[in-house]
Design brief:
329 residues; alpha/beta; 5-stranded mixed sheet; two-stranded parallel sheet; globular
Length: 329
């Protein structure tokens, strides 16, 4: 089978979480093209489902778009009420337009040019009453940020910090997201992708990393997530500096509560995430032909076990194609 669509094995916190959640979901998410030689209908269905998102996922995505739109504009010049409303209107119009396209589109065929379909529409659910609720959640997330002291701090950073980075989630810079892992032999050939929402170089040896979240909150405020550790590792590798010589603070900030978790990144955090990367890559290699991360060809779908949780299956976007695949395993 031709493998021109393959690339070197990739690691991300999302990928490893999906693999641990359900091996089969991982397969559908990251190796759907391998189904092409098995059955074309199953292959195309998997590709279609891979591009679906739930309404809740859409709220998170559009919140990131709206906050990024605001912050990227704020970085250039102050934003007044009219400018802020324009950012909101843009996202509101996007959500309404995309909702209608999702609702009326033909789900019997895969269309690679349309990436904003809703999983609820695919499965025939009536979610008309959820659109305005979703829009209000997105707008409210920006409003609480605007009214918080965080907004004032951001404006202060724009005028005083050495460098301020604001991610543009509308135009992903995949090359810029990659970590340079050349100095770690076991990971040299692995693609590790990471880009925080907001980063500040306060001075030559002082850094701040912020990642915004809209999902379920983690309440341990002193806990530093693996995602934050990856961001810190990326910064250290990019700048070719050691953690002992800099001060890095990293936080996940939840919307709309503005609750945050995180803190100062220590050497133990960096050591931990490097070892975690190595362990996760070894785990991922178990699902590849010959364990070859360069070739990155998955084993047959039967090697990817389904979760035993009926609850997980009931809410999984891939439940249709997962059931169809059983006839070919």
């Amino acid at each position: 089978m031709a493998n021109n669509y393959n690339h070197t094995l990739t690691w991300s916190t999302t990928r490893i979480t999906v693999l641990e959640y359900c091996n089969k979901k991982y397969y559908f998410n990251y190796y759907p093209h391998s189904l092409r030689s098995l059955n074309e209908e199953v292959w195309l269905t998997a590709l279609l489902l891979k591009n679906l998102k739930s309404t809740d996922m859409r709220v998170g995505e559009k919140t990131h778009h709206l906050l990024s739109d605001y912050l990227r504009a704020l970085k250039k010049w102050p934003q007044d009420a009219e400018a802020i409303q324009a950012h909101k209107d843009r996202v509101i119009n996007e959500m309404r337009t995309e909702f209608e396209i999702s609702k009326t589109r033909d789900y019997t065929a895969y269309d690679r040019d349309r990436k904003f379909w809703l999983s609820e529409h695919y499965y025939g659910e009536n979610i008309d009453d959820k659109l305005e609720e979703a829009i209000q959640k997105v707008v409210h997330n920006l409003d609480v940020f605007l009214e918080s002291d965080r907004n004032q701090k951001v404006q202060h950073y724009f005028t005083t910090a050495k460098t301020v980075y604001v991610e543009n989630p509308r135009e992903k810079d995949f090359e810029g997201m990659k970590l340079n892992l050349y100095t770690i032999p076991e990971l040299r050939a692995v693609n590790v992708m990471a880009a925080p929402d907001f980063g500040v170089v306060i001075s030559d040896n002082k850094y701040l990393i912020i990642d915004r979240k809209t999902g379920q909150e983690k309440m341990d405020s002193d806990w530093v997530s693996e995602q934050l550790k990856i961001y810190a590792l990326k910064m250290l590798l990019k700048s070719n500096i050691k953690i002992e010589n800099v001060e890095i603070e990293a936080y996940e900030v939840y919307l709309p509560s503005l609750h945050q978790i995180g803190g100062k990144i220590e050497k133990a955090d960096i050591d931990h995430i490097v070892e975690k990367l190595k362990e996760d890559v070894e785990y991922q290699k178990q699902f590849l032909e010959d364990g070859d991360i360069i070739k990155n060809q998955p084993l047959a779908p039967s090697h990817f076990a389904r979760t035993n949780s009926a609850k997980k299956c009931a809410s999984c976007t891939f439940r249709k194609v997962c059931e169809d695949l059983k006839a070919f395993e």
